Amino acid sequence: MEIEKKYEPELELTQQEVSDLSAVVAHPGFQTILKVARWSVDQFVLEWINASEPEEVLEAHRRAKTAAQFFQSLVDGINYEVNNYREVTISRRDKSLLIRSPDLRQVQQ
Question: Tell me, what's the pLDDT at 73?
């Protein structure tokens, strides 16, 4: 009997897409977008708090949880991609400086 594999989608961004994403995150307006997105999630939570019937409470909880999970997943994905991009960029810069280092020493002699 074969066990069914868990659905695990992978995100593959090009270097340009990650660079663009990093630029968007660095823009001051991105914090405003996050603020509005968080407010949107809070609206689902508020609906849950205001629900009175047991069925309404359960459904509102499901929607609030889904909204919060989506928001957190989005933020985590952005953080992962941008931080990974920055690490690779810094690593490349350091490496290129190390490669140039011996040439500079030879020129100075």
Answer: 93
- Residue 32 per-residue DSSP state: H
Residues 29/35/39/42 CA torsion (nearest 10 deg): 150
- CA torsion, ordered 70, 76, 77, 79, to nearest 10 deg: 140
CA 96 to chain centre: 28
**Mean pLDDT over residues 15-25, rounded?**
92
Instruction: In whole angstroms, give the CA distance from residue 109 to residue 99.
Output: 17
- Residues 27-51: tens digit of each pLDDT: 999 999 999 999 999 999 999 999 9
Q: What tokens does 17 get?
A: 């897409």
